Amino acid sequence: MIAYLEHFVHENDSEPMLQQDDGEVATTLCQAMDLEGSIDYRTTGYAGKDFGGLHASTPFAVIRPSGSHDIASVIRFASQSANLTVAARGNGHSINGQAMANRGLVIDMKKSSDSVIDLVRCEDGYAVDVGGGALWEDVLKRCVSKFGLSPRSWTDYLGLTVGGTLSNAGVSGQTFRYGPQTSNVTELEVVTGDGDTVICSDAQNSELFFSVLGGLGQFGIITRARVLVQAAPDMVRWIRVVYSEFDEFTRDAESLITRPEGDSFDYVEGFVFVNSDDPVNGWPSVLLDPDQLFDPSIFIRSANPVLYCLEVALHYSKGNCSATVDTTVHKLLGPLRFVDDTLFQVDLPYMDFLLRVKEAEKHAKANGIWDAPHPWLNLFVSKTSIAEFNRCVFNKILKDGIGGPMLVYPILRNKWDERTSVVLPEGDIFYIVALLRFTNPYQKSPTVNDLVLQNHEIVQTCVRNGFDFKLYLPHYNTEDGWKQHFGDRWLWFVEMKSRYDPMAILAPGQKIFTRH
Fold first, then answer.
1. Which DSSP category does 2 fall into?
2. b/e string for 318-332 if b means 16 or more Cβ within 10 A?
3. Catalytic status, residue 269
4. Which of 156, 245, 347, 417 is catalytic?
5. Pairing of strands 235-243, 267-274
6. Active-site pick, 50, 108, 138, 269
7. What residue stretches are annotated with the FAD-binding PCMH-type domain (predicted)?
8. Where are the domains of the chain?
9. Nearest one of 257, 309, 266 to 153, comparing CA atoms
């Protein structure tokens, strides 16, 4: 049966299979893989592209599993073949084809998760057990409505799967306090490249646990995660303030993330914007409400091509009166050195704040740009290099904007568990730089190829100037690139691969290892 199916995989005109109708073929494949779920080998196009829109491939089939047992069966089936690979696909939000498997098997992880969320007691308080294919936005809604609780650490966009972000890191404005999402799980269920289903944690199968977290899908597919939660607030005061000088912006941002928990905001991010009236890249991008106005005359004398916005948020309960919240905000903002008359703020429900990017997604879909290519670039840049990065990149290469957000904000290294597979730059503080381009097919703008080349220019600028940096959501086409990325962790990474996916079946789209 394996040889028969492999012939079908690599010979599209294979007569024996094509003489059967789709139902018969699907039944044959399900029986061969011992699936309780379903398989689709005809309408697989969506699994051959992703949010980035930069790469495309053709999978042999898409598996819609009924649970982790199906995922294990698919991997074991692939291991008996000569060259089949397996990729776990969440919500397809990868940028460089990381969740693709050319002529391989793609597992639709969203189909593997149901809506059940179990609340469990743990040493650190409470946690919830959720499926690896669950979307974070659904986890948020169910946790808040059912338990009045919420996970501690987020990503800005919540239309991502739990397993997908845990396979990378998962960062946002709460990372300075609680660490990335990989630091906020206490247990995982993982299906390894051998097809074994393993429960792992800090105390049980810890080697697998830490290698899978941030492991880019190389060692196993996360089918369940135990995520730490805490009491969910009712409301959020969302605030933005503007700086003309980068050093003042970074000093204030770093002071906020190093303050004691009760003496700072609950969320700290920031971004760079163009010193112009450009509606996407310029002053209007700072405003939080249509009724707010940005006074550009404040910056007429500024020769800086770009300006800087510090974005913070304070959680509070409905029982807090407005005056109490105002007093707290005034106290926290008091020492900051932002430009006068550039304070913008709104109050909104907690869930609306966390789902704020969902609104941007709706507008992008309505405007037809959500499905356009997104040549994003994400980096971690050490505090020691961020000022020069600003000078060389933000003020020169990107001085006219990128057609989307240019995020930059500091993160504390001690909030990360360095036993995971994530590699970081040196120093106690480093910055995330996220260049989130949205190309507009209806306006005259640089080609996608031009934007990819600009990303390459930025990376080469970092290398040429000796900046201490690492790519986040990394993508390399050569082994040398991956070796340089992992540095002295490379041999450990290779050892973990040989231990948990010895045939290199998993996550071929990352282009780190080749199927044996």
1. H
2. eebeeeebeeebeeb
3. yes
4. 156
5. unpaired
6. 269
7. 55-232
8. 2-110+503-510, 118-231, 236-471
9. 266
Which residue reads 């776990």 in tokens? 88
Pair 74, 63: CB distance under 8 Å: yes
Fold type of domain 2-110+503-510? 3.30.43
**End-to-end Cα distance, the chain:** 21
How many CB atoms within 10 Å of residue 166? 24
Rg (CA), the chain: 24
DSSP string, 463-487: HHTT--EEESS---SSHHHHHHHHG
Distance CA 350, CA 372 (A): 30
Catalytic site residue from 50, 55, 70, 93: 93
Tokens of 214: 């941030």
Residue 24 designated active-site: no
C-alpha 230, offset from chain centre: 22
Please tell me the distance from the alpha carbon of residue 13 to that of residue 34, in angstroms, as a whole number.
Answer: 25
Any idea what the Cα angle at residue 124 is, between residues 119 and 129, rounded to 5°?
25
Q: Answer yes or no: pTM beyond 0.90.
A: yes
Question: Does the annotation count 156 as an active-site position?
Answer: yes
Looking at the domain covering 236-471, what would its CATH class be?
Answer: alpha beta
Closest CA to 109 of 147, 56, 165: 165
Q: Indicate the CATH number of 118-231 among 2.40.33.20, 3.20.20.450, 3.30.465.10, 3.10.180.10.
A: 3.30.465.10
Per-residue pLDDT of the chain (516 residues; tens, 9 = 90+): 555 555 555 554 444 444 456 667 777 878 888 899 999 988 888 999 999 999 999 999 999 999 999 999 999 999 999 999 999 999 999 999 999 999 999 999 997 777 779 999 988 799 999 999 999 999 999 999 999 999 999 999 999 999 999 999 999 999 999 999 999 999 999 999 999 999 999 999 999 999 999 999 999 999 999 999 999 999 999 999 999 999 999 999 999 999 998 899 999 999 999 999 999 999 999 999 999 999 988 886 667 899 999 999 999 998 878 889 999 999 999 999 999 999 999 999 999 999 999 988 998 888 888 888 999 999 999 999 999 999 999 999 999 999 999 999 999 999 999 999 999 999 999 999 999 998 877 677 788 999 999 999 999 999 999 999 999 999 999 999 999 999 999 999 999 999 999 999 999 999 999 998
Strand, coil or helix: 407: strand
CB atoms within 10 A of CB 70: 25
